[in-house]
Design brief:
Elements (H helix, E strand, L loop, with lengths): L5 E2 H9 L1 H8 L8 H14 L4 E3 L2 E11 L4 E11 L5 E8 L8 H17 L5 E6 L4 E6 L2 H20 L10 H4 L4 H4 L1 H22 L1
Parallel strand pairs: 1-4, 5-6
Antiparallel strand pairs: 2-3, 3-4, 4-5, 6-7
The protein binds iron/sulfur cluster.
Length: 209
């Protein structure tokens, strides 16, 4: 059987909502909304660029990545290769929105760094996320905390994928508002069903007592 490589983009789905991850990567459901369509257009624009070299830095676009160790694979938007010795590899990811408190985008960047380290036999100490909406570039240290968080997510997401299990909706209802899978997921109906069965179980317990 072929080894399954988890798409790096799936880690962001998992970090946002494990159910969203499972709907896309276990059940193969996908529904595009304004946010996903806009994000796709942005990546197509970034992907168009040819490699170029300026002031000791080579800029490589749409670089394919793979880690045999962590069983992840994907494509990164931009890799800066600083050509002085020792060479420095600096991943850059483009996002349509603005910087976030949560690590969703940083996890994706860290997974890219893990692949580069394995493929190039190097250590990646930092990368950057460029936010289209705010025209801001956030430098991200690839530190021990981010690495641990990213590796935890890789392992848990991989297990869910292997088990074919779809978790319940996130407790954080605000995330559902911008979720491209809201119509397919029907989180409110699922939550109501869960509340109904919970109440039934509660009264069943009282009858027994
Ligand atoms: S609608 Fe909410 S619970 Fe469902 S996948 Fe999206 S974020 Fe998760």
């Amino acid at each position: 059987m072929d080894t399954y490589f988890l798409p790096i983009s799936a880690l962001q789905h998992y970090a946002y909502c494990p159910r969203q991850f499972a709907l896309i990567h276990v059940e193969q459901a996908w529904e595009e909304n304004y946010f996903t369509a806009d994000g796709r257009r942005l990546h197509e624009r970034v992907d168009d660029g040819e490699p170029e070299q300026r002031k000791g830095i080579r800029y490589e676009r749409s670089v394919l990545l793979r880690s045999e160790k962590h069983l992840i694979a994907g494509k990164m938007d931009l890799l800066e290769v600083h050509l002085e010795e020792p060479r420095k590899y600096f991943p850059v990811e483009y996002k349509r929105g603005k910087p976030k408190i949560e690590d969703w985008d940083r996890i994706q960047l860290c997974a890219q760094a893990l692949c580069i380290e394995e493929m190039q036999g190097t250590t990646v100490t930092e990368g950057a996320i460029w936010y289209w909406e705010t025209r801001q570039r956030e430098t991200v240290p690839i530190d021990a905390n981010l690495r641990t968080h990213t590796l935890d997510i890789i392992q848990t997401a991989y297990k869910i994928r292997q088990a074919g299990h779809t978790p319940p909706p996130t407790e954080n209802k605000r995330r559902c508002r911008a979720c491209s899978l809201k119509n397919l997921c029907q989180p409110d109906i699922y939550r109501q069903d869960r509340s109904a069965s919970y109440i039934e179980e509660l009264f069943a317990d009282e009858k027994i007592a």
